[in-house]
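Sample entry (403 residues):
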Amino acid sequence: MTVALTGVWTDLIGQEKVVATLQRAVAGERHAMTHAWLITGPPGSGRSNAAKAFAAGLQCAKGGCGECRECRTALSGAHPDVTLVRTESLSIGVDEVRDLVRKAAMAPTLGRFQCIVIEDADRVTERGADALLKSLEEPAPRTVWLLCAPTPDDVVVTVRSRCRRVELATPSRQAIAELLQRRDGVDPAMAAFAARVAQGHIGRARVLARSEEARRRRREILDLPGRLTTLGACLTAAANVTEAAAEEAAAATHELDARELTQLKEALGFGATGIRPRNAQAAVKDLEDAQKARGKRLQRDALDRVLTELTSWYRDVLSVQLGRPSDLVNAELGERAAAAARRGTPEATMRQLDAILACRTALETNVAPLLAMESLLVSLSGVAGTVGAVAGSGHSATARARG
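Predicted structure, serialized as tokens:
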């Protein structure tokens, strides 16, 4: 089925099948609409964009024209009947979900539907999912839940079983390049480069196309495998990568943290004398804890980008080893990948890819970032006899230095 990607649907490139499904629901076709949706797809495929476009289409008299006030406010989060939820912490807890459930029980104030968009439904805790369940089982007449997650398995089974699923595909390189040129005015050669190295992630492609600093950091990451020649080099590189991720997170949140603290103190009535009102300390501590959780998540997001770039390198090496060198992610490093391929074996490269996956899992399960990166880089280096020592010691390089 050919679908015109116009209006609010314009940027959902490569998702014509999903757009057709959502447009049928917006149009009110028989059996096409339901009260709860689970939108899944790989990182960068446009899950949250699809959910916001759907919410805008449900509010728009023309089904998502992209020009009216309803469309513009729904996409920006300013529409009173469209709630956009994206956690800046590691999880969405039960209290936050209960607030959403109370809102979902209310009738729309201006629009046709009350739309609740949870961009990180995979981060809802089990207790949060329990609180959400009743609203999904007994929905208000004009409330629509739009949940986004990488895969259905990332969402608690009792929640996903009550949602209609739509799955986004990974956009093609050509589609991403065309979007960068049309929407962002990127030069065709740069757009093609960014689309290739972003591996289907639209947001990442846009950053790489527009930022020389992002491209510089990416080059540094791809240089890492060649520098892992000794245990000391591995530990130093791990410390540098972890510190850079922490600095990136701090830079992204510094002004926001300060502004939030100032606003909270003003709301609590902190005076010029510095005297703190009763119970203010608990509120300040809660804010500081939330800010630390946000910084922790942003640091891990930065480290995840490092892991993604390293994966692309070892995937290229493996492609050469298996006799398929024509479709490299990092085509500009083809000669270097060929040299690395000759020095190793496909089996060794697979072990390195497995080590990256294990590191990602470790970070998701709250292993200290420095320790996880030390273990990974030692594994990638192949320095004999050190992997177990680092992974099993329970001490980071920083801790050993202090000792």
